[in-house]
Amino acid sequence: MYDDNSRGLESPERPVEATVSDQRILADGGTKWADLTGFQRDIIEAVARLEETDTERSGQAIKDVLEETHGEVLHGRLYQNLDSLIDDRLVERGSIDGRTNRYTLTTDARRLLHDHLEQLADACGERVVLTDGGQR
């Protein structure tokens, strides 16, 4: 038995094949879009939507956006995932008032979103054209 938590399912000597996505430069130095859960990706997209419309980005506002597609979102699930995104340096937490937090995407999260947009556009045979003077 190996001491690498593989539980004997595969040999540690077996080479790991790198995929094309592994070879890309990662926006935040480590986290890839595919590393995130679908719910975490949806949180990032919800925060981006709120930022785009200049809407308050409290946990409740994020929850409201998510519930449009997910149905009821439990408080614990939302905040546990927000904390993970903060730990991954994709979301920053600030203060709106003494009780309410504001959540903001980091530059790394915006890059991940943009890179994902380009991948989706490429998969659909489309191009992404920047309309903001070439700035991300």
From TrEMBL:
Q: Specify where the region named Disordered lies, as residue ranges.
A: 1-21
The record's annotation in InterPro entries points to: Tscrpt_reg_PadR_N, WH-like_DNA-bd_sf, WH_DNA-bd_sf
The record ties this protein, via SUPFAM superfamilies, to:
Winged helix' DNA-binding domain
Superkingdom of origin: Archaea
Question: What segments bear the compositional bias annotation Basic and acidic residues?
Answer: 1-16
| Pfam families (alphabetical) | PadR (PF03551)
The chain positions of domain Transcription regulator PadR N-terminal read 55-114
Name the UniProt record assigns to this protein: PadR family transcriptional regulator
